[in-house]
Amino acid sequence: MSSSTAALSRTLKNITLTKIRELEKQRKTYAQSKNSVLEAAKKVDDDPRAKIALLLKGVEDLNPSSSSEVDLSNIRRWLEQSRFDSTIPETMIHQFEEQLRSQLHVQTRRLDLGALYSRLLTEWLNPTESSDEQVSFEDPEALDGSFEVVEKDRLKQLKDKFSAVVFTPLETDEVEISHHLERLFVGDVGAKALERLRRNIESMGTYRKKNKAPFDDRTIRWCLKGLLVNDLLRDDKKAILQDFLRDEVARTEICDVLNMKIADLKNWEWDAGEEGLPVEPRRQLNGKYRIMMDEDILDAIFLHYIGMTWNVGMKTVLCDVARDTGIWKHNVNVPEDVKDRRRYFLGDHRSRRETGTGVEMGRLETFRDDFFLSQLPSKVWQGAGGYDDDDEVDSDDEANGMKSPKEVKQQLLRLLATEVQLQKTLHGQVAVVQSDFQWFATGLSHSTLFAVLRFCGVDEDWISFFKKFLEAPLNMGPVSEGEPDSDRLQIRKRGVPMAHALEKFFGELVLYFMDLTVNQEASMLLYRFHDDLYLVGEPEKCAVAWQSMERYSTLMGLELNKSKTGSVLLTGDDFTYEDSEIAAKLPTGSVSIGFLTLDPDSGNWVINQKDVFAHVLQLSKQLAAAPSILSWVHTWNSCIGRFFSHTFGVPANCFGKAHVDAILETYKHMQEFLFPGNNVCAYLKGLIEERFGVSDVPDAFIFLPEALGGLGVRNPFIDPFLVRDKVCESPAARMKKFLKDEDDMYNNAKAEFEELTEQDRKRRKRAIYTDSYGESSISSDLEKSLEAFMTKEEFIAYRESTSPELAALYQELMEVPQKKRIVTSMRVSNTVQKLEESMNEEGQESKGELEWLLQLYERELLEKCGGMSIVEKNLLPLGILTILRKKRVAWQMVL
Length: 895
Description:
This protein has 895 residues and is mainly α. Among the domains are: 3-125, no CATH class; 164-308 and 443-501, no CATH class; 609-728 and 820-886, no CATH class. Helix content is 59%, strand content 5%. The chain has 37 helices and eleven strands. A four-stranded mixed sheet has the order 2-1-4-5, covered by helices on one side. A hairpin with a 2-residue loop joins strand 6 and strand 7. Mean pLDDT is 87; it is low at 1-8, 129-150, 384-395 and 891-895. This is Reverse transcriptase domain-containing protein. Residues 385-404 are annotated as: Disordered.
């Protein structure tokens, strides 16, 4: 039996089998009764009215719900009318007969399709070949790519590579690190900010040590739930955590033990025994193998608590320093003299609109809200996986407004695309730089971590604890059969244990100071997601920022990943960039996210077809090896509905309509490759006929969701078509329109100013340039400069900080367009409305996608199934199907 079903309860399986048997019994009973009705009708073939009466009674008896249909309920009355009224023609009598026969056959088809569904599910539960339903794909955005293992015979190589890194210390210069960090806090402002940082961190550490009994039922519950949503523990140990959640007595005992541990924090050691902590390559949900420790459950809970409390506390402190101390550079504030001049020339109404509404403020807010220390949770109960988190966000996190990693990546992609459009148009040039770190969490230098902790004011007691956590005693297992395990015990000297909450704490703390370094030295924002690094802006500033990043990496013992490093320098239509010295300072290589690559010629984000079809080739092999049709569907949906849908980039205004068309073309070519001369619907129908001998399967059976009796196969073309008519036609044209509108605004403002009377101008001057004592602050030079309206250059000089129109355009380009829903019949609307609750729970189809499908197949459903569902929901074993659907397909690609 597939490992996907190994954990299913025996009770649920029995219920499923009971449903399947009951459905089969109903199908046979109906077939016998229907045949009896048809035989009786055949005996009165020479009396059409008697025949119709028998057929009508049969429909009403066998399928009572159908008698409520308007036509069927009226047939009896029309039939009686025809005995007396010759205006009821014989052709109509024959139509009544056909309609009734069709109704009898519809129920047969519904029960037959229900039986087919049961056979498909049985095939999935009991495949002829063992399969763990794991698809071979590598996420193109995966982290620590050099530790990627794609073949089982290379697992030993993975362990050897891991050992070569983590058991060899990487010594960095703690004194030089401290000096560099001190240079980020210069002057009185910097000194006060640093003092505030250290004071708050010291207080936080002291409080944590003084709180000798922090574990209570509430605390232990969020610790258990946090460990259940990350990849730290194996499934068998997660099952024990589930038991703890249900057992109040066990939780009380655990709290007592953990409070004892924290009261004696100085003497904490890993519960590893003489042989150390076993280490194993463990496959993650994204399909990659990672070297994981098999640690004690109590240690895991204990460390999760400490990690999450430090995460939340440190995020609060670092955000406080970034927001309120004045050491971060930004271009949000406009000089007061500039504000005064704009108020004088443009009037109070325009000046009020320009206050706090510019693009610069939007950039800063987006950076702070979505990218700055985004991996540190704001609440202790939020998800706390490691640097390999999957693309989904925990439901509790989602309820608290926390974006999933997938959503943050898409927002980053839109931000880069929008900035390219804006800066090419407004400044004539823009650079984009991309990089990440090689083996970031696995290879972090311990001396670097201790240097940063000490600089921040973490006391030696906590540093001693963190040192013991980092220097875990690992047992890599025997080199050869018969060798004692204890001979393989080694103390870790580099890197951070994977998937712990403390992994994020250490990683974000080190990279926080890279963020600050780039901001201080280049006056830029470093957009960072985990250790994925992105710069976008003026080429000169990007070059300075990149050099800062290189120096910082060297200082901290970090290695930039050359294979994922690159830059693109773009110019506008009317500009050329000739500074080869600046270009030479930028890194070589392409810039890409997922399957989208930034074209260095056009500045558009284009789909990398070569990479796409390498994955499609692997998908075709996996689909061909699927042991059952439902596992085939599961694999297809995971790939088409989850993998490609976001690696192509979610359609947005900053990409334009051409991007949507490129997605549709790519899906078209994928389908032509996977099903030559055919399509996914016809292919599956052929597969069903080949394996089960069932033909004449409705198309709707393939695509409708399980709740309506369909297989729920995702159609990748629908979602792009839902936004195609709403997305911005051309973002470049939209930017050019802004420039024209800006010209008009300038000319209108100039005309309005020149129409002011001398008295009006004097009133404005008094309102702006007179102090509270009635004294004028206007110098003779200023007085002279106020005579003629500001130049166009002055009008646009601070537009990224002042222009509400540009801010609105920026926001418009960043937006994902609303879906244009299809026009639906009342029948379709009612069906969707009834299904909305279950749709939200299952999350398989959006409302717009479901409406599209139902309206497309409405006629077929009515003709072949007599309604908007294929099979009655209560007849299908959907409970076990829902559990099977939740099994995630792991992507791990061999190229």
